[in-house]
């Protein structure tokens, strides 16, 4: 791959692709595996999203299966917020740098474990559903189906992979549903999305004797955004009065993020006319593709009696379409490609609901969620691993109009390896290679509340 230079030496193409790549910039360890945010329903969270494609218990069915609007008791508006309290723990394990300053030998470099990069983060959503007539419904949802915000300590051992990542994807979803007969309904939604990303990572000083140091590091900072659209559709089938099946498909939208990279050169310990001036700043515009995954979900609801409901769900994620980050520049420079090598993944959940009385409903659920990341590609932007969810929740109905949903979830994120190689200043006399080695694991607490109003 041909590198693109800034000034007399710094490879802008490599720097930009590193900022974009870092292992799925579009990912987050506090949601579903990969970077999909399941937290779009408080009642669903309380049962670990078991049966959400089939149960249609409130207006949040617009997101999980719009066909479910035909099973609502009447017009409804819902506002909700999920407070995510994540923790990630990255540990260094013999990370090395090979630079002219190390005389070409791989030597350890200074760096800590980065601290917990996450702050408590609220994820809000809004849904409105209303019938045209007895068979035709329309609705609208505002959600954040993908997102990320993390910042590591300045001396993080993997700072040459990432120091800060922020992504938000806002989805506007007008939807319709039609009840074909008493057993069969269909639904369709248009997904209009805005994506915005800010990405940063450090650049090592190749000239420092003994290896790079945080005091002389440079930085890549990238900002980019995009508008694009896709669709989702679903069906619900009720073979008996007590059993309902739901199938939902969400198209993986292909965004083209347009933005600019700002590069601050390291404070070179040994200035060289072949290198940019120490601390100098340069920038260049470009674009990169973001391929979101197709998602197919199968849901099941079965009513045992007047009080108990059993639920199950299986979701499949076509993460394999996120195989690379390809950066195209505004100039005629060659594309810069960084491999991601995501694999397809799946999640399975089971849950139950118990109607305590006319006002209170209790629920709980378990979910197992496979990560799409793979060894040798997993990064500190996505310290991701397989997850196990433990959820419970409750709903309170105050009269015919007002209702409240509450939920709590604990997610255990399995321990995984970090094994990455990050090149800098390729094809120059100061070519540098950083081998990042370590482990990562984490957990998440989620608290959620929703307010519903039935017209």
TrEMBL record:
Region listing for Disordered, in residue ranges: 93-115
Protein's UniProt keywords contain Signal: yes
Localization per Swiss-Prot or TrEMBL: Cell outer membrane
GO terms assigned for molecular function: long-chain fatty acid transporting porin activity
GO CC terms: cell outer membrane
Keywords: Cell outer membrane, Membrane, Signal, Transmembrane, Transmembrane beta strand
InterPro entries linked: OMPP1/FadL/TodX
Membrane topology note: Multi-pass membrane protein
UniProt KW Transmembrane keyword: yes
Pfam family, one: Toluene_X
Domain of life: Bacteria
Family of the protein in this entry: Belongs to the OmpP1/FadL family.
Name of this protein: Long-chain fatty acid transport protein
């Amino acid at each position: 791959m041909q590198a693109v230079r800034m000034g007399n030496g710094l490879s802008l193409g490599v720097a930009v692709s590193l900022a974009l790549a870092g292992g799925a910039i579009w990912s987050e360890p506090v949601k579903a595996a990969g970077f999909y945010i399941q937290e779009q329903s408080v009642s669903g969270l309380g049962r670990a999203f078991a049966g959400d494609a089939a149960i249609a218990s409130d207006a949040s069915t617009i997101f999980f299966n719009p066909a479910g609007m035909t099973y609502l008791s009447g017009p409804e508006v819902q506002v909700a917020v999920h407070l995510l309290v994540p923790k990630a723990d990255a540990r260094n394990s013999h990370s090395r740098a090979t630079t002219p300053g190390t005389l070409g030998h791989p030597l350890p470099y200074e760096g800590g474990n980065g601290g917990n990069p996450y702050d408590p983060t609220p994820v809000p959503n809004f849904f409105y559903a209303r019938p045209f007539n007895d068979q035709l419904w329309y609705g609208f949802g505002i959600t954040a189906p993908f997102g990320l915000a993390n910042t590591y300590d300045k001396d993080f051992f993997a700072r040459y992979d990432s120091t800060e990542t922020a992504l938000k994807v806002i989805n506007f979803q007008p939807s319709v549903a039609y009840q074909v007969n008493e057993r069969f309904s269909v639904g369709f939604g248009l997904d209009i999305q805005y994506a915005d990303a800010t990405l940063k990572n450090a650049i090592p000083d190749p000239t420092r004797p003994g290896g790079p140091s945080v005091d002389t590091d440079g930085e890549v900072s990238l900002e980019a955004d995009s508008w694009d659209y896709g669709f989702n559709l679903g069906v619900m089938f009720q073979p008996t009065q007590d059993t309902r099946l739901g199938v939902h498909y969400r198209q993986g939208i292909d965004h083209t993020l347009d933005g600019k990279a700002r590069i601050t050169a390291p404070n070179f310990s040994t200035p060289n006319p072949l290198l940019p001036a120490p601390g100098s700043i340069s920038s260049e515009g470009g674009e990169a593709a973001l391929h979101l995954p197709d998602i197919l979900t199968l849901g099941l609801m079965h009513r045992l009696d007047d009080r108990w409901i059993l639920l199950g769900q299986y979701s499949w994620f076509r993460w394999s379409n996120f195989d690379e980050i390809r950066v195209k520049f505004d100039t005629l420079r060659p594309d810069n490609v960084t491999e991601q090598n995501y694999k397809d993944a799946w999640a399975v959940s089971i849950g139950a609901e118990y109607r305590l009385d006319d006002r209170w409903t209790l629920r709980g659920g378990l979910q197992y969620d496979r990560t799409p990341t793979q060894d040798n590609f997993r990064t500190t932007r996505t310290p991701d691993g397989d997850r196990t969810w433990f959820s419970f929740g409750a709903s309170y109905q105050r009269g015919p109009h007002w209702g409240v949903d509450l939920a709590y979830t604990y997610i255990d994120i399995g321990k995984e390896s970090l094994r990455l190689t990050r090149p800098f200043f390729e094809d120059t006399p100061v070519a540098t290679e950083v081998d990042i080695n370590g482990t990562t694991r984490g957990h998440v607490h989620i608290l959620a509340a929703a307010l519903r109003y039935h017209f």
